[in-house]
Amino acid sequence: MKKITLFLAFFVFFATAFWIRTTKSFFNDTEKITGNVLSVATNWVSGTPTPTTQPTPISTPTPQLTLTPSPTPISTPELTPTPTPTSVPIVNRLVINEVYYDVGSGKGSEPANEWVEIYNGNSQSVDLQGWQLCDNQDCRSITTSSLVLNSGGFAVITNNESTWGYWAIPDGAIKIVLGSSLSLANVADMLILKDKDNSIIDQMNWGTPSSSWPNYNVNLWNPGPSVAVGHSLEREPAGKDTDTAADFVDRYPPTPGS
Ligand SMILES: [Ca+2]
Ligand SMILES: [Ca+2]
Ligand SMILES: [Ca+2]
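Above are the sequence and the calcium ion SMILES. Below is the predicted complex in C-alpha cell form.
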C-alpha cells in the first residue's frame, strides 16, 4: 500500500512535469495579451510616461456677439437761437457818428481842427448836396455840389484842411472842408444834421444845453455826454441810435473816417 501511494505520487509528478514542458504555461489561453503587458513594462522602465492623450475638447463655438444696431438717436433739432431783439438799432439813415470838439495837444488848434464824422447807415447811397451841419449858433452848407456818401460810408467834416495832416483817415472816407467855420464849445454845444429839404435828420449835444441857443431844441439831452480834451464822442457801434446820450462812448484815440 505504501508502495502504491509512492508510485502514484511519482506518476503525478512526472505527468505534471511533462505537461508543463509541452505547454510552457499554466495560463495559456487564446488571448494574445503578451504584447500589451510588455509595452507597458518597457515604457515604465524608460521612465517616460506616455503622455496621456488629452481628449480633444470639443470646441464650443464661441457665441458671436450679435451686434444689435444701436437705435439711431433721434437727432435733436438744433435750437436756433432766437435772435435777441437788438436794443441797439442801427438807423437806416445818416447820423452824426463822432465828434471831436475839444482839440488835443499836437492835433492842431481850436476851432480850425475840430471835426465831425457822418455815417451813412442807409442801404443806399446818399447825395449830400444841399445838406447842412449846424451847431448851437450857425448852420453851414456841407457841399453845394453833388457828393455821394455810399452806404456804410463815412464823411469827415472840418473847418480847415490842415486837419487831414493830423490824422490817418482811410482812403474810402470822404473829407469835407466847410467854406465857413463852425465853432464847437468844449463845455457844452450841439450839432444838427439837416437834409436838402431842411429837415432835421439827426441831432446830438454834449454838456448841459442852454435854451438861449439859437438852435436850441427841446429834445436835446440835459445833460449830454462829455469827454476830456483830445478825446471824441462816438456812437458804439457805428450808427447806434436810440436817441439817448448812451449811444455815445468816450473814444480815445478818436477814429475819423472809420
Ligand atoms: Ca472846441
Ligand atoms: Ca458852437
Ligand atoms: Ca469814427
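Residues 101-102, 110-111, 114, 184, 186 surround calcium ion (ligand 1) (CB under 6 Å).
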